[in-house]
Design a protein that fits this description.
Blueprint (H helix, E strand, L loop, with lengths): L3 H14 L21 H9 L9 E5 L5 H9 L4 E6 L2 H13 L6 E4 L12 E7 L8 H10 L1 E12 L5 H14 L6 H14 L5 H10 L6 H8 L9 H11 L2 E5 L8 H4 L3 H7 L4 H11 L6 E7 L4 E2 L5 H6 L1 E4 L10 E3 L5 E3 L2 H9 L6 H8 L3 H9 L3 E4 L7 E2 L1
Parallel strand pairs: 1-2, 1-4, 2-3, 4-5
Antiparallel strand pairs: 5-7, 6-7, 8-13, 9-12, 10-11
Helix pairs in contact: 5-10, 6-7, 6-8, 7-9
């Protein structure tokens, strides 16, 4: 097994050759919203309630060319953002991206995750997308991140799945064999890989998978290289994923696409099977989902937290009525009666719901807004479940701490 330093150097060479992600730079703020990078929206998704009102300290661990950093800064005004990466070329692109779109106050560091102790203090919110699976020792990498997460803080991670990327792994190995002693020449690897795909018969499984799932992104060489000629990649199953999580001492707060992990969408038409599934533990049910639908597990995107973590379900009417509501900052299309919820599903609002959301600025208790608009509590809870409405407990509110 290569030494961690050698792996880090090889990965840095890849991203110096092909800075990733290759999104174009812009003189405008990033388009749209990604709620996973919004501190209030992500915290509410994980806990059911808004975070403390103080500006958070955010770490973008493995920022690449700064696409995530730019979003983290724009979606969290007043936050103190630090970003790090091992690629000097990608880091320079990230700095330029943020400068051009008007981001100020981000601290950039040319640093490995293994050297996080060089950054002072801890963070409220850590984002590390597509990084751990490229480390020589992902377990150590996650433990390094966990040490920088303050108690009560949350972490957003993205890791590759083995079942959904089975064909990718086969092509990676095929390209490496054809490269021979030229492995590490990433431009040659891209050339070889494109030639292989062009030569494969139309009914070849690897070629079909590329065309169906990945080809649009992989038109860009940087994306193709990141997928097929990467020098280090670990892919997970549900079992190995939770072994990794357990090693960190952090709490699993949920997949960010929970609808995809609901067994009902696959076996809901068979009540007998669903009854059997109720005898399984949560992790076993997740495993059953990925076995029955491997496309769910091309990757895992999820949140972890360092206890104590609050968990608020708003099942008690009196607590709900005392809460102070505010609109989500990540409502694509607002103001409108047709919006995307957190799962990017279209939600059609009534005129009363729109009027209610207009009044939700966090200044008054929900009771007053319900009295003014006549919105029912089930309708309010639906807005909260869709993450269009974020709630802060009143000063004397009680909530469960895990």
């Amino acid at each position: 097994m290569p030494e961690p330093e050698a792996v880090t150097a090889a990965v840095a060479r890849l991203y110096n050759t092909y800075p990733f992600p290759p999104d174009p730079l812009s003189d405008q703020p990033p388009p749209g919203y990604n709620w996973r990078w919004s501190w209030p929206a992500a915290y509410s998704f994980c806990t059911g309630q808004l975070p403390p009102p103080t500006p958070p300290r955010i770490l973008d661990a493995g920022c690449g060319t700064g696409v995530s950093t730019e979003y983290l800064a724009h979606l969290n005004p007043g936050a103190r953002v630090s970003a790090l990466d091992i690629s000097e070329t990608a880091l320079a692109r990230a700095q330029e991206r943020c400068q051009r779109s008007g981001v100020t106050g981000v601290e950039f560091h040319h640093l490995s995750l293994f050297d996080l102790e060089e950054l002072p203090g801890q963070f409220d919110f850590i984002n590390s997308v597509g990084v751990l699976h490229h480390l020589a020792d992902p377990t150590r990498g996650l433990q390094c991140l966990a040490q920088k997460l303050r108690p009560g803080g949350i972490m957003h991670l993205f890791l590759y799945g083995a079942l959904g990327r089975w064909e990718v792994g086969l092509m990676q190995e095929a390209i490496a064999l054809l490269q021979g002693d030229r492995q590490g020449d990433y431009q040659d690897g891209v050339q070889v890989g494109r030639q292989v795909f062009a030569a494969l018969p139309p009914d070849n499984r690897l070629g079909q998978r590329e065309r169906q799932r990945w080809a649009l992104d992989n038109q860009q060489d940087a994306c193709f290289a990141d997928m097929y000629v990467h020098p280090q990649e670990t892919r997970y199953t549900v079992g190995s994923l939770f072994e990794l999580i357990d090693s960190s001492g952090l709490e699993f707060l949920g997949f960010s696409n929970p609808a995809a992990w609901r067994l009902e969408r696959l076996l809901g038409s068979a009540p007998g099977l669903m009854e059997r599934a109720t005898q399984l533990g949560l992790r076993e049910r997740y495993r059953l989902v990925e076995l029955l639908d491997p496309d769910t597990a091309t990757h895992y995107e999820f949140f972890l937290g360092r206890p104590p973590i609050p968990h608020q379900d708003w099942s008690q009417d009196n607590q709900l009525l005392q809460a102070r509501p505010q609109r989500s900052p990540c409502m694509e299309g607002w103001p409108s009666q047709s919006l995307f919820n957190y799962n990017y599903e279209v939600v059609e609002l009534t005129a009363a719901q729109v009027e209610f959301l207009h009044r939700c600025d966090g200044s008054r208790p929900l009771q007053a807004l319900v009295d003014e608009t006549g919105l029912s509590l089930p309708q309010v809870r639906r807005l909260w479940q869709d993450q269009l409405l974020l709630l802060r407990p009143d000063a004397g509110g009680n909530f469960y701490i895990s």
